[in-house]
């Protein structure tokens, strides 16, 4: 997977077009959360970022104000995101909240995206690239909203025509005064354009379409900002020096992720160096059980004092690491079981859906024989189906156990890939077959 520049976030155009209701702070936070999660959008649902790190990316002084962040998360979890897409040549509409879950605890912000939304946000074909450094320069919500919605058109040069009503919806300009175009133009078009052209990497110019004497549509010509070279010192990667440091590279060698490594070096460079040296010394003596990355994390995150320790202290740390490794192993095994069950259920359902009426009838007779005469009362011989949805579901669950086809490891791996699951994160020996499975009944 190609790593994303740590100052740029690929934001799906559909969400840009429907996020006008968000405040400036909410929009900026949503971009930072997306940037933080981007590399693992397809492989994990839950993401975490230190609150102090989040505030720092906003350009604020170090802060641990949980109340402000709580308000933002409430909004992000309640604002509806609409997708109007073309899928398989047909119009497809979807709606969901921007975040499906949020939590603030022990200085950390934990959050989740709906699986469908995560797949759309990661789409490398349709996105707008938002530079977090440029984002910090915006002080007006309308300016930043317009910037987001114009940025993706830089290569084609124009947004295309938007009706005035669509433009107002995109911008979140719902005030009654904006029914009068002169106020809409002043506050939501011209002032934001002045800000965009002054602080960002693009330059925007409006064009208007009239129907009689009334302005009916607007579009924006988008070009590179000739002042871009002057902005680069302000929008470059804030962590370049850290990335080039020997300490950062040593953390990566041990398997610590880039963002976590940057955060640790920012927090306490001396402590990070001490922990690395301590663990490397232990590893040379073959006294580290499990990975050095896990041991480093345990020491650093538990504020352990590194140096000479008593045998009791060393034993305690090793037990902590063993517990953590065991928990990670169990979580991985649980995930593997869930995925295998989903795979078998999906294959069985596909086969069930291809059964002819006669084949289905034979299976229903077998079901009634095995489950008892009560099931016969629930079966309608005229319609050839069960009378209630619950009975139909129970029959399908029973049938899956008998009809699920065998599958090879290769077929399972292909399915995992199509579903966006990383193969290396799931240990696969064999795909389990269903117990008591019988061959598919056929009509002679």
UniProtKB/TrEMBL annotation:
Cited Pfam families: Rep3_C (PF21205), Rep3_N (PF01051)
Gene Ontology biological process terms from the UniProt entry: DNA replication initiation
Domain called Initiator Rep protein WH1: residue spans: 9-150
Gene3D superfamilies xrefs: Winged helix-like DNA-binding domain superfamily/Winged helix DNA-binding domain
InterPro entries with a match to the protein in the record: Initiator_Rep_WH1, WH-like_DNA-bd_sf, WH_DNA-bd_sf
Superkingdom to which the source organism belongs: Bacteria
GO molecular function: DNA-directed DNA polymerase activity
Family: Belongs to the initiator RepB protein family.
The protein's name in its UniProt record: Initiator Replication protein
